[in-house]
Amino acid sequence: MAQPSRYPGKVGLQQRVLPDYRADFMESLAARCDGGLSVFAGSPRPREAIHSAVPPTNARLTLAGNQNLLGGPLFLLRQTGLVAWLERTQPEILVLEANPRYLSNRLALRWMHERRRPVVGWGLGAPPARGLRGWVRRGWLRGFDTLIAYSSLGAAQYRALGFPAERVFVAPNATAPARSSIPARDPLSGRALRLFFVGRLQPRKRIDVLLQACAGLQPRPEVFIGGDGPDRARLEARAQEWMPEAHFLGDLRGEALVSAFARADVFVLPGTGGLALQQALAAGLPIIAAEGDGTPQDMVTSGNGWLVRPGDLADLRAALQHALTLDEGRLRAMGEASFRLARERFNLEAMTDAFVAALCAVTLRRR
User: How far apart are CA 182 and CA 56, in angstroms?
Assistant: First the structure.
């Protein structure tokens, strides 16, 4: 059966925040919702260093009042104005972040279901949990009519908690559209291999492990680190100790980011993350990535890169050393394999397709 290309109704979508890297997806989804797309999202906390998106052209954005309660592993969120937004916009279907820590979302679920309107949960997945925590998580997920996961691992976790398999969809996390060609790269002969990382600089990204691993390599590669964040000063100090020649490029956006991907030979993600992986695929790069929330397991294969254990110095160093031994032809072939994955499976269009399919399926099922 052909996948639906459009959703005929009015869609509401809630987010904790609307970062700039989600702007293109919101525009893409809004263009395929005939009844329009309304978005409800709040502002990030100052220490998060998240750049909020410019209000989408095609979607109506309402700013939420984010109230961040407690912190760390006890973090909870309340968004004021959520029910008032629902009353005003009257969505026929609602997409909520499937995070039980977002207390206001329970009110939104109840509001929609009292009016016999479906609710779609969107999230990373739900790692196994025992006892009371597992019971709460299962009860929370049962409130949704359909779930959309970022990855196949996330979808499997939802199914393992008893959510019906036919009501679980995968929308591969993406920011870049499908491209027609791989960027031209400098010849590798006569220079060091260029490794590239981009992302928010915070401890869970494990950039310190990347620096330490590179310090023990022969021949030593060049390391380019894009991004900014609260861990930058510590990382620059570690780089002076382990690898003074590492380049910290700062915040990269637009053409500066595209250029940085084009100059690299291998993309490395030593800690958690996911969105930058899709950008690396679209740029036609071999990838070394830590196993994480399921996104790396979907995007990295033996044909285009290496998966390593998170935080494992020896494992990361072995993968990097292997990359250093490959000739230019083999590295370029791996980059072409990455590019094919981006073009065929992991791109903005595919993500939008999956959302539209999930919205149409849940609406059809409830008729």
Answer: 29
